[in-house]
Structures
1.
Amino acid sequence: VSDYLDLVEKFTDFEFGETGDQIDVSQLLINYSETKDIEAYVSLKVENNQVTLMLDRDGAEGKYAAQDLLVLQGDSVQAAINGVKAGQDAKDVLLDQLLNNNQILY
């Protein structure tokens, strides 16, 4: 059901952190409002020393499913992955970091 993503882009030098890079997904979201949980729309996969940003255009509404949008790579990404403590879920920790640092704009 890919009517908005023809291919997955790679961001090879992505910078995590408060002054890091930003990703604007606002134009891709359908029916998002501040009363809805952004994590119903945005999620991560962490594998092979990279982070993949996934997007479900309509969140929990069900017409769309989460699809890979952007692969984040680079030294900062590797450091962020390595910084996740044992027993923590890397995808949740890193998504919280991106959201708390305002690196995902919505």
2.
Amino acid sequence: VKTLCRGLKYPAGIAQLPDGYLLVVESSSHCIHRISLDGRSTVIAGTQGVSGYIDGTGGQALFSTPTNLCLDREGNAYIVDYGNRAIRKLIFPAKWSVGKREHRHQF
């Protein structure tokens, strides 16, 4: 067993990108990290500790308790944005922009 990255609060989902890096959802901090295999972590979407609902690029995008993710064949990530009751699309790698709502149910 080898630890790749320490210090994340409530990592909730992980997927490997086509370029070998990892995407990790940090649920309680409302952000998405890109982690290299040598352990360097960069927030690529959302702002640590700031909850909200905004589509945008990098730190302009806001999430509310993201809980999981999966990738399509091109490496785009679909993120379960639990607090906003939405599925969000993170576009790989073009500026890491969060696209428009894929679908949002009213409960």
3.
Amino acid sequence: GKPEDEAHKGRSASLVGRIAEAIHADRPVTLYDVQAARDFVHVDDAVDAAMLAGEADPIRCRGLLNVGTGKASRFEDLTTAVAAALGKTPIINYAPLPEALAPRYQ
């Protein structure tokens, strides 16, 4: 989708959507933790995993379903990749983590 597809969600928009929106508008992307990384999974892959789990034997396969690639990507690398996909160079601002976010930051 286009960056504006997520714009109405505000702070609840996906990280990729927020990064894409900022880069598309030539605004800086603020990163709080240079080393922060997550295992990003494309939604199609997550759906495929859920569908496969739904077909599994419910007696032998139950509980939580963790879906991931097994590889964490840094937010900085994600920002650079999104910018490259948009044909742009990102403007990245590095800032200290705001105290209000610290209790919820993983």
4.
Amino acid sequence: WARAIKRKADALKIELHAMALAFTDRRTPWYVKVLLVALFLYAASPIDLIPDFIPVLGMLDDIIIISLGLALAVRLIPKEVMTECRERAREAQKDGLIAWLFSRDKG
């Protein structure tokens, strides 16, 4: 049970890192970058469709909107860019954070 959660968390870390790498890649279309910025601003904003103080529903709308937005962004990013970014994210996770910070190259 704990291993399954750790595997899911590791996969999520890789996917989020890959998304950050894709954001900085010049081959990623501008409209995907706008979508990702909008999702970040929505997640960071204190204004929600359903206020967070409403139990369950307040957090559920954030999870749904952000998940759907990220899924759309992944579909809009060219496959070769996303594949390359996922591989770079996997390698960075193996090498550790410090190695990733010093080996960053913009695609």
